[in-house]
Amino acid sequence: RATTLGAGPIQFFRATDDEAAVRRHALERDLASALANNQLSLAFQPFLDLGSDRIRGFEALLRWRHPTLGAIQPSEFIPIAEDIGLIHDIGHWAIKSACLAAAQWPCDLRVAVNLSVVQLKNKALLDGILTALSDAGLEPKRLEVEVTESVLISNFEDAIALLQSLSFLSVTVALDDFGTGYSSLTYLRKLPLSRLKIDRSFVQDMLTDLDCAAIVRSLVALAHELRIDVTAEGVETLEQLEYLRRVRCDEAQGYLIGKPVPIDDIPALLRGRLVRNDALE
Ligand code: C2E
Ligand code: MG
Ligand code: MG
Ligand code: MG
Q1: Which end of the chain has less Cβ packing within 10 Å, N or C?
Q2: 180 or 76: which carries more pLDDT confidence?
Q3: pTM to 2 decimals?
């Protein structure tokens, strides 16, 4: 700790690095048993259809409650899981749990699961997904996988092959966080995409930045020309929702519509239709 190493900027920085290393080491060690110890869960965040004002499904997002460190963000533990090879088990658990959850919902609702680059390289992934679907008795068309552009850069040909197999089986594919990475129009052309998810950063700025608004508007139009649906991520205000409706965006997701919730809250959320009913008015 910083205090035991004494004062001074050099020691301070070294101590901070040490603390980060100690935390990282602890997370690596504890993540290995997190699944077995029931510390992982899924939170579900709704998608709102802007044409019908109905919830069309939920995205499953991993949560880790560490016994002493509390809630650990996916942005911290997923890269660790990828580095130490645990992402395959954790990812499979997430897919399996998401399919079991969705099998309990009304059958017009889909569930979306995120896949990381490391998972897409795994030859066992396709079988894992098919097993999860059949064990849950979930129709493949009700499962969507979300991949980011980074998934594609490192392993384009294999990734396309896998996504094509999934799409052939009626699992749909969404391109997540669109616009943030090395966005290439090649992805829109070569991937079997059903959906493009416009990254939160564009949604955040589109009402104050005319260029950003133009990008969002044009992305929706471009995707529609290619018969791809568009979901806007990170919608936090009614004004943003209104703009998205106006430019014919298909779906919205974000804190305005609903934060990620535990699985047990879903029935109530569906009965009330929305966490925030004012998002509809
Ligand atoms: P993502 O797939 O782009 O998920 C959206 C993230 O934005 C989630 O963060 C969500 O809680 C957050 N979010 C949603 N609406 C709003 C909003 O209105 N405002 C703000 N500020 N944030 C919003 P989360 O849950 O921390 O997940 C972060 C990332 O971790 C995800 O980004 C996804 O890439 C990854 N991840 C989560 N679960 C899984 C998983 O099961 N497998 C894999 N491979 N990655 C996962
Ligand atoms: Mg996602
Ligand atoms: Mg996203
Ligand atoms: Mg995003």
Answers
A1: C
A2: 76
A3: 0.92
